[in-house]
Amino acid sequence: MQFIVSKKEFIPPLIAPDIIETLGNDYEIWTYEDYERLPPLLVGVYSYSAIPKCLVPLSTQGLVKSGVFRLQREFVPGLYGNGVYVVVIDTGVNYAQEAFMTPEGKTKIAVLWDQNTDTVYSEDEINAAILSENPYESIPGDEDGHGTFVASVICGNDRPQDDFAGVAPQAKLIVVKLKRAPQNLYDFYFIPDRKIVYSEADVMRAVHFADEFAGQKGVPAVFCMALGCNNGSHTGAEDLSEYLDYITAKRGRAVVAAAGNEANSRHHYKGRITDTVDDIEINVEQDMDGFYLECWALSPELFTLSVISPSGQSNPAGVPMRPDSGEYSFLLEGTAVTIDYRQTGRQTRDMLIFIRFEKVVKGVWTIRVFPLMTIGGVFNMWLPMTGLLDTDVSFIVSEPDTTLTMPSDAKLVITAGGYNSLNDAILLESGRGFDADGGIKPDLVAPAVDITGANPRGMYIALSGTSAAAAITAAVAALIMEWMIVRGNLLLANGVDIKNAMVRNCRRKEKTDYPNKIFGYGFMNGFANF
Predict the structure, then answer these.
(1) What is the pLDDT of residues 258-284, one digit of tens each?
(2) What phi and psi, each to the nearest 5 degrees, are found at residue 323?
(3) Are 197 and 54 in contact (CB under 8 A)?
(4) Could you report the per-residue pLDDT of 385-408, keeping only the tens digit for each?
(5) Under the phi-then-psi rule, with left for phi > 0, alpha for psi from -120 to 50, and beta for the rest, what region is 511?
(6) Residue 86: enclosing H or E segment and its boundaries?
(7) Is 100 helix (H, G, I), strand (E, B) or coil?
(8) Taking each helix axis from N to C terminus, what angle separates 200-217 and 239-248, rounded to the nearest 10 degrees?
(9) Measured on CA atoms in the order 419, 425, 429, 431, is the torsion positive or negative?
């Protein structure tokens, strides 16, 4: 089991970890190889931020038939990503495919870390595997395909027969094949075993590895984060979000994050109350093992709540002014509910109410919210992402705004929503802003419908989703980084400089206010950046 520990909030552990990994100046990952000797995994036992969130790949919202535009020529002629690394932290890459090899038959991958075996493969080792009879027997590839698709959009070779070209075909890749999250996180978040999710701690370790490798080589790097989750306050205050902001501020680094595909999922509720109560109804379609809910209010708002079962039984409201945990049994339904109240966050001490429902029966469950100390009276609730539970759980009345997934809510990163380039219509699922404290997100939107890339078998298919938008945006960021740093036009550039160049030159519609919650500052327009 892993825990994320901020050095700013260091408390000596009661049980010493087996392994401590240092990530930069602010974070450590504590690993316990035998987690059965630890107390139960509950928010009431550990701090909320210490328990890693589970992130999932975001891309494939649909399979479509048409090809994709020639992105390289559309965006920036003459720049191909030469001298820049693009970091793909994902399901791996099928490196033996033609898309990831140079005209000389050499790999475009500078290094590959397989977290499953904790093995780092060099460029020479990958080249040797490519020449072998069965490459993936010596170095594992990508069994899922998400990472391969994302990487091919970024740097795939010209394929006239498929009407395809990667945006930055001369960029080199740093690939991290993430390992599956530990079973106790699956159990804690009620994630079905068939779903592949990744621990926030392992994603942070991957970011640190890529940053260190690029630093040792003296090469600028763009990070493509096509992963996300619904956890957190949606203010950019989670550990991974803050760590990505730290990376973004460094010279020669930029981070692009997909906005997620949650705008149409009915997983967000926004309330505003000051002197009454608010009843929020949640529909559970089928009996299930369980689900969780996070209710957040920005400091200094304070609320308390109770849960009402489909039969009408309710529990007493809690005590939010101090850490408080309560376990309640709903006898008619046979459901157990745990409610934890916490003041969390290193900067604002926002209020979190974390609720776990175990052995849930189908029907309408009601959350009754009581205001205790309010200024604006605003609170937000988020349910788990689409596909992470056994059955659909949704708010009967929901809010499509503030549906960006974490870590796309990070303040400094480039957050890419998705749109259809054929008609400028937003991708319906594309995560919307603003963030929960009014910060401008997404930053821009990029093509996300009918985007062609490689599948695990080397065939070229078209998919839709904001992972495709993030891949395109990361590749364009690599071209800008080549122009700024590799070609010597702005040697001290970092991710903020690149984001400013991109949002400043977005294409914008007339009679539309910008920035806005759907399109951010507008449509990415690579031509205008140079």
Answers:
(1) 999 999 999 999 999 988 999 999 999
(2) -55, 125
(3) yes
(4) 998 988 899 999 999 999 999 999
(5) left
(6) strand 85-90
(7) helix
(8) 10
(9) positive
